[in-house]
Amino acid sequence: MRSAIYQSHGLTSAKAVLAQARFVISDIDGVLFDPTGCPVVGAAKLFASRPCALVSNNSTLTAKTIAKRFADGGAYISQERIFLAGEYAVSIALKRFGSAPMLWLASDEIGELAEKMLNEARSVGETAGILICRDRTLTMEHLERIVNAVRCGAEVILANPDFTHPEGENVRMETGAIWSAVSCQLETACSPVLVGKPETLLAEEALRMLGANRREVVFLGDNPDTDGLTAQRLGVNFIHTGGRNGFPLAALM
Question: In terms of pTM, does the model score above 0.90?
């Protein structure tokens, strides 16, 4: 696998790697969206320069919503090129459990998708699977239902392992924190099916969609611990972009 390229390698080196890449896989928040959720300078130029695919641990929105946000800011990318942990987790749940009864924690947008595709359990005891995405309406009652369903043998699909995500100057709780609250109540260890980065499921889907040779791909991300590790596991170059310590996208273009 190739070594990741971090900021210590210098802007000139990073620009050269991006210029040579025929395809780009990129994170979204912190790289292509600023803290207000608007496209950063350089996003539109990047999308127009070569085939791109976006992969994100976002578990509250759908690709359609993300694509519209880019379009509203003058950066155009089709929703088919956007792979999100929450949306993808619903599709994995459908493949894994079919019509078997399920419980889920999710935002309104992902919850609506789950209602269309999955069969909601009427009781804890009949629950075959559990889908955990970010849910800002989470209550103790919700957590207790999940804990008891897992104790009864239900399998868990976790949209991403993140404990927090940045929102301006603050941090918000993520799905990993929800799972931590659940798992500490279990008598025996339970390993959920992980969907988001640093697992490579989303990035592998992006590669297939692009039809790209890994040697021709560069991965842009603001978090070396997740994005950088995903790139390393995938065997593609990585440029630390955005966030507090990465190169601004505009400087790389």
Answer: yes
